[in-house]
Amino acid sequence: MKTWIWTCIVFVAAVALALVLRDHNGNVLIVAPPWHVSFSITFGVIALIAGFFGFYALLRLLSWLTGSPERFKIWRRRRAEKRDQELLQNGWISTLEGRYAQAEKELSKLLAKTKSKTSKVVAGLASAQASQYLEEYQRRDEALQIAQKNAGSDPRLKLAYATAAAELYLEQGQTQQAIDLLQPVQDASSRHFHATRLLLKAYRQQDNYERVYELTRLLLRRSAIDKTQALAYIEYAAARRIQSATQIDSFKAVWNDLRTEEKNLEQVAIAAAQFLEAQQNYEEQARVLEAAIQQKPSPELYSLYANCPAEHYSRRLSKAEEWLQKYPHDPALLIALGRLCITGQLWGQAEHYLKRSMKIRNDLRVHALLAQLYDALGREEDARYHWRIAAVTAGALPVMTPNRLLPAADLQADPTLVDGHLPEAPLIVDNDRPMAASAVDSSVLGAKSHTVLAPSEMTETSENSHHPDHYFDSAPIPGVDVTMTSDGSSRSKD
């Protein structure tokens, strides 16, 4: 639009000048003795304009000729920048493709040729990352030194070097080097969220739960961390802080600093319950565990909840019966109910719950509890049977390395289960026997010198000779409507 406006102005001026000159027929006389030069005014004006443009073109030509060295420098700089950009792009693409050797080759070439400090910092960090993937840690450190040297005092380049180098150190497990780089950045400004997140990860690796708790709170206030990840950090740090508490005042300070959602996290509730149990504050312990179980039940929470003195079992048993209506097939809950019944000397109900749990998941602990129960009832044959299963299973457990982690979904790898096969023991499948206990029962029954009933036969015999109603207390459970319990319908009415 601007070009069109100037074009119109030039045409208007030309037309106006032509009209003015047409009405003026005068001459221009230039006297320069001994010469006299005479020409029309129209020619004079045209010659003056042409001379002006010719002089302007001459000046531009002289300027272009005198500026050739500077233009050559600019051309060389642009060519070098283009080469650096191509090398950097090729290096990053090779890194993303997993061709780390090729990436390091391209980036090393860039480090050798480029004169730009920024390019050297970026290329050095990228080359260090490729070297780490190749496990060439000496070359990685050399590239990091080049990047640090060229970062100089530039705050952006220093921050880029600190975060990138710290991330590489964290991947290798060198937490202290990462902290030394990141702590000054975090102290200078808490708005460097990425550096703060890396620092949080470093303190987590270093098991510094106080700093983990502090930094997680900081990132939560700034909405700079995912809530699920933050809760995992809070769960770890808060549980460790509770475990380190020695007095009730220090425990309350930690506990009151947590939100309701955080108090109900599994590890936090377990740590708090263990502390309150040591303080013999069983009522508060029950409230803590009940809130956590209500949010997310787990076997560990059930186990702690079932561990209480006899004077507190009634309330906990009533609450556990309510949970059973919601989770009728939870073996851990059934074990907890059995333990509570044993605490309250409700032998028949304890046997009922433990057998229900064993039908769902044949657990070593269930056999041990049943053996203790039958010992208390004087049923020596049944007690010996379950003690033998528990002893054979516990004795056949392999020696586990301390760092080995068992997959959560692989139930056969659980050392407390009886369902797994014993080492060097033949598998004998008996269709009359529950498959869950086939391995251990076969190893027990395979000995010629012992005569032991199979679980199905034992259950049949014990049910015929000892009716379960014989072991139920006549008095109802306090606070529990017997008609609403899970086994109420199976009781015979006299």
From TrEMBL:
The chain crosses the membrane at residues 38-59. Pathway: Porphyrin-containing compound metabolism; protoheme biosynthesis. Residues 483-494 have a biased composition (Polar residues). It is found in: Cell inner membrane. Residues 456-494 are annotated as: Disordered. Residues 463-472 have a biased composition (Basic and acidic residues). The keyword Magnesium does not apply. Keywords: Cell inner membrane, Cell membrane, Membrane, Porphyrin biosynthesis, Transmembrane, Transmembrane helix. Its main location: membrane. Residues 26-132 form the HemY N-terminal domain. It is a multi-pass membrane protein. NCBIfam families: TPR_hemY_coli (TIGR00540). Involved in a late step of protoheme IX synthesis. This is Heme biosynthesis HemY N-terminal domain-containing protein.
